[in-house]
Amino acid sequence: MRALLGAPTLAGHAALLTAAAGEDSAPVRPVSREGGLPLSYGQRRLWFMDKMHPASPEWVAGLLLKVPAGTASELVGRALDTLVARHEALRTRYAEVDGEPRQFIEAPSGVPIRAITSGREGLPAVLAELLGTGFRLDGGELLRAAHITLDDDSELLAVAMHHITTDGWSTAVLEREFHQVLAALTVGEQPVLPQLAVQHADFAAWQQERLTGEAVGRELPEPTRPNTLIARPCISSGVTRTWCRRPVLRAFRAALYPFDIRVRRRRAPGVGPRRRVPADRAGSALPLLRAHAADRGRGQGHEGEDGHRGGHAQNAPVRARRGQQQPAGPRRPR
Considering the domain boundaries, does residue 319 fall inside one? Predict the structure, then answer.
């Protein structure tokens, strides 16, 4: 815990994990694409949630890309097709085999792109229609796209995908590569992108091979507390509340739990006036916030989809084989 609190950055956390894994940690290597491949744990979570509400629009993720004015729709389509051929996650379907989910990578094919002309005030309605219909994971279309021309002559490419395919980190990769490919096609050149050594399916196979029940059991202590999955009233500030219990049927409402952290600092004798904490040091409280959120979720009998931050950290199919640091979160067109 001391080491974790002393490493407030993701790079610091990664260094701790690397040291804990030891030198015998096997690297991710390409595996055969014959037959269905296992899912990563992040994919399994989203597959399970989708099974509860098949083809629900709540799991639709959108990507909005700025397109240079006057770009032909044919070039936009070619750029998108290049990304689909490059990233297997964009053409992967999921089906049950003997009661277990497996992923099947489809051959590259062209993605139909709708051409839409709209006023800027009508853009929200256009996007709502594009994102308002879910995807069947076991077949059918895997993504939808629309080339939108607005009344001020600005252009956008809107792409809808299932969240099992992408997340905020992955969209940053797709955005960067789309602009690189489109720029090359616009001047009549062949796009050149670095070869991908592995894909997310390779990572999923590696994860399933390493994180067996026996391996996880060696790292986890014997349970010393009651099963947190047993229904119980949640507790807030020492007061038992019945209104925050899970409903019988799953709802889509959400809530915020705001709280303040007050930090008291004392000045040593002879030290000058207080100065503001630099921005690069302000993240030292993040491990404490994560621990607080995890503890509250555990005490209430539930937790986020990935155990600490709501299900996005370990999905990222497109990002899994890129050894680069990228900003997280949704991206806006530039």
Answer: no
Residue 54 neighbours by CB under 8 Å, 6+ apart: 134, 136
With 0-12 CB in 10 A as exposed, 13-18 as middle and 19+ as buried, what is 184?
Answer: middle
CB 3 within 8 A of CB 70: no
Q: Which two tokens stand for residue 6?
A: 């002393």
23 belongs to a structural domain: no
Residue 70 in contact with residue 61, Cβ under 8 Å? Answer: no
Quote the tokens at residue 333: 């067109």
Yes or no: say if 60 and 157 are a contact pair by the CB < 8 Å rule: no
Direct distance between the N- and C-terminal alpha carbons of the chain, in angstroms, rounded to an integer: 40
Q: Which of 234, 249, 247 is nearest to 295 (CA)?
A: 234
Would 221 be classed as within a structural domain?
no
**pLDDT tens-digit profile of 150-168?**
999 899 999 999 999 998 8
- 156, 304 contact by CB (below 8 A): no
pLDDT tens string 25-68: 678 999 999 889 999 999 999 999 999 889 999 899 999 999 99
Tell me the per-residue pLDDT of 193-241, one tens digit each, with 9 for 90 and over.
Answer: 999 999 999 999 999 888 777 777 776 666 655 555 555 555 555 555 5
Q: Does the predicted model carry a pTM greater than 0.85?
A: no
Q: What CATH number has the domain bearing residue 80?
A: 3.30.559.10
| Sequence letter at residue 109 | S
What is the count of structural domains for the chain? 1
Instruction: Give the span between the Cα atoms of 144 and 111, in whole angstroms.
Output: 8
Confirm whether 292 is domain-assigned. Answer: no
The whole domain housing 47 covers 41-210
